[in-house]
Amino acid sequence: MQNKIIGGRFQLKYKIGAGSFGEIYVAEDLKCQKEVAVKLDLPKDRISQLSFESKVYSILEGATNIPEFYWYGSAGKCNAMAMELLGKSIHERFTQCNHHFSLKTVLMLADQMLSTLEYIHTRHFIHRDIKPDNFVFGVNDKSNQLYIIDFGLSKKYRDPKTLEHIPYNVYEELTGTARYASINALRGVEQSRRDDLESLGYMFLYFLRGFLPWQGIVPKVPKQKNNEILKMKQNTSIEELCEGLPEEFAKYLKSVRHLKFSAQPNYSEYRQMFRDLFQRQGFVYDYHYDWDEIHALQPQNSFRRRRGSIKNSCSCLTIQSENKPENLNKRIPIIHNTRLVPNYESKNRKIENQNSNNIRTPRGRGGLQIRVSKQKIIPTKKVCPRIHI
């Protein structure tokens, strides 16, 4: 596939990922002479998950934390999607930091993740696979900007015109990743906004602790692993999960677990709770994360727990954000103390729906029809042309 030209525009350079879904390549956009990511699905798929995912990106694009979508179409026996090339995932950064993040880093991530999920939910989608691998950072001057990716399992949870919510239902199979899945998702209950937020809560604990109690379960019957994880999640109290952590994390998890199936989450309340904690700790919202440090971090507000003990120290070494040395310490400019948080929320709220077309969810589980919005985005600088489906 190397050097093959996709869609008459994108020349494949080298493969950077592969899985059951297909393959991901770095490609050159021949129109703009810049690198992009091209995702190829497996041939002969009866229903193309990539086709669905490309339409979701088309609906969501334009927001700060959503990658730019360029093109979708046929590539021989495969389908292909071209989008913005991004950098390292939270999972990779977490590994680089010896499986521990400081409180400051977690709170900055939490603030951005909550706003990102709120935006997706206001656009009538749920993600259904919230995990560290699906949050990634940009490259070059966007190396400290967080993005969410992989909408192959996402679903429309309400009709955009009537706001009618999908009905409550129960299935046998889990959609998502068991480690971070909500209790209801593991039970097979139809997912809604509350489940994305509960998964986010488990991620916060994982970042601060370095592990979750249900990791590494090896059941006697392999097919029973999800059931074993469910039992442990049900039997581990929130107080035990959050022992030694600031009380805000227990409050958050209790709140999202008690949400009703179709309830509207109070995103601003969750954000403000974590922002208040951020301010009390005296942190500065400078987008300076743990992995930006070349030297070992000074012990501060570390809540890593090693299977029964809580340690108040951590050691993280930075690595270069990209292969090019000049990108080592590039980050978004520091925000003045007069404003604690970045202004990406107002940008996300300005995106409007226009010209709609209907598509259907590929995983026929009672999902509503999807309306693809053709959004008019006025760039402030020269950008590559995007081909909309």
TrEMBL record:
One Pfam family, short name please? Pkinase
Q: What are the alphabetically sorted keywords of the record?
A: ATP-binding, Kinase, Nucleotide-binding, Serine/threonine-protein kinase, Transferase
Q: Which PROSITE patterns match?
A: PROTEIN_KINASE_ATP, PROTEIN_KINASE_DOM, PROTEIN_KINASE_ST
Q: Which domain of life is it from?
A: Eukaryota
Q: Domain Protein kinase spans what residues?
A: 10-278
Q: Any idea what this protein is called?
A: non-specific serine/threonine protein kinase
Q: Which GO terms describe its molecular function?
A: ATP binding; protein serine/threonine kinase activity
Chain residues that bind ATP: K39
Task: Report the family membership.
Answer: Belongs to the protein kinase superfamily.
**Top EC class for this record:** transferase
InterPro entries assigned: CK1_Ser-Thr_kinase (IPR050235), Kinase-like_dom_sf (IPR011009), Prot_kinase_dom (IPR000719), Protein_kinase_ATP_BS (IPR017441), Ser/Thr_kinase_AS (IPR008271)
The EC number(s) this enzyme carries: 2.7.11.1
